[in-house]
Design a protein that fits this description.
This protein has ten helices and 16 strands. It holds the Pfam family Helicase_C.
Length: about 325
């Protein structure tokens, strides 16, 4: 999207601002864009996240978190530094994103030259189009469909046989799913080509516990890699490095839409996500673990259908999937 804006002549009278909900995504997208444009990161393409500003006076495209752009409105109310603003992953509906959406709607009549692009893979198109347009003339909508390969979905709830007293733990369910993946490979003959596994987990603690369980299992020819925001840049970049054998990436929902992990053929989805929620009653921000929406579950499933046919193992029942909300609930408006 920023490359298209550059080709259309945007970025000359001001910056092309491109927001991401997470620091990791802002850094990785900026690096990818600089690589594709064959420029040094920090020159024509830069990024700014909390405590780090890698941009310069020659920067044309600036990647940043939603909070950085929101903070800039305090000393630049009309956002005169920008001629184009791209709000990415708008479906996440955090407080920062919702504030920006409301702020930009009020700003556009004062800045008719400013172009605003709202993007998301699971966005509620009609509501957003009405918000930025009128009831008779909604904002224009551009839908882009990508090529995907077929993905098999297997439901494996964390429930043991009737003779067993206890259900499987999350870690036991993931290990069992990895063993099932090995059986699927032998059956289908998928022993060559992409073989990596992406496991979605709610947070850092669950990632550490799952990594310990998988390492104790001593899976042959398998590398276990965590992926979450608090890791150093060097550790995060290991996910993109070439490798041999199988790699199991344990990631938060940053890998759902904000970041594309290469080489994924299998997805293990426990159906859980840790989401920041604001309670207007207690006036505090909390991080509860919730079930994902149908749109988020389908987005996770699609992560293993990008380069070859794949398999998604959901650690919950099909009834749970169908009974969940169709779209993610806005983070700033859900009751606690």
């Amino acid at each position: 999207m920023p490359k298209m804006c550059l080709e259309l002549g945007r970025g000359r009278r001001g910056l092309i601002g491109h927001t991401q909900p997470r620091r990791l995504a802002a850094r990785s997208v900026a690096s990818r864009l600089a690589e594709e444009l064959e420029v040094s990161l920090g020159e024509q393409v830069g990024y700014q996240v909390r405590f780090t500003d890698q941009s310069s006076p020659t920067t044309l495209v600036k990647l940043m978190t939603d909070g950085i752009l929101l903070a800039e409105t305090q000393h630049d109310p009309l956002l005169l530094r920008y001629d184009t603003i791209i709000i990415d992953e708008a479906h996440e509906r955090s407080l920062n994103i919702d504030f920006l959406l409301g702020y930009l709607k009020r700003l556009l009549p004062k800045r008719p030259d400013l172009k605003v692009i709202i993007t998301s893979a699971t966005i509620d198109v009609e509501r957003f189009a009405k918000h930025f347009g009128t009831a008779k003339t909604p904002a224009p909508v551009v839908e882009v469909t990508g090529r995907t390969y077929p993905v098999e979905v297997h439901y494996r709830p964390l429930v043991r046989d009737e003779d067993d007293e206890e259900d499987r733990t999350l870690q036991e369910g993931i290990l069992h799913a990895v063993e099932e993946i090995e059986a699927i490979e032998r059956e289908k003959g998928w022993l060559h080509g992409p073989r990596d596994v992406l496991v979605f987990l709610p947070g850092e603690r669950e990632i550490r516990e799952t990594a310990d369980t998988l390492r104790r299992a001593e899976l042959k020819g398998t590398e276990i890699l965590p992926l979450y925001a608090r890791l150093s840049n060097e550790e995060q970049n290991r996910v993109f490095a070439p490798h041999r054998g199988r790699r199991i990436v344990l990631a938060t929902n940053v890998a759902e839409t904000s970041l594309t992990v290469p080489g994924i053929r299998y997805v293990i989805d426990p159906g859980l996500v840790r989401i920041s929620r604001y309670s207007y009653r207690s006036k505090i921000q909390r991080l509860p673990v919730e079930a994902v929406s149908q749109a988020s579950a389908n987005q996770r499933k699609g992560r293993c259908g990008r380069i070859a046919e794949g398999v998604c193992i959901r650690l919950y029942s099909e009834e749970d999937f169908l009974s969940g909300p169709a779209l993610p609930i806005p983070k700033s408006s859900a009751p606690i």
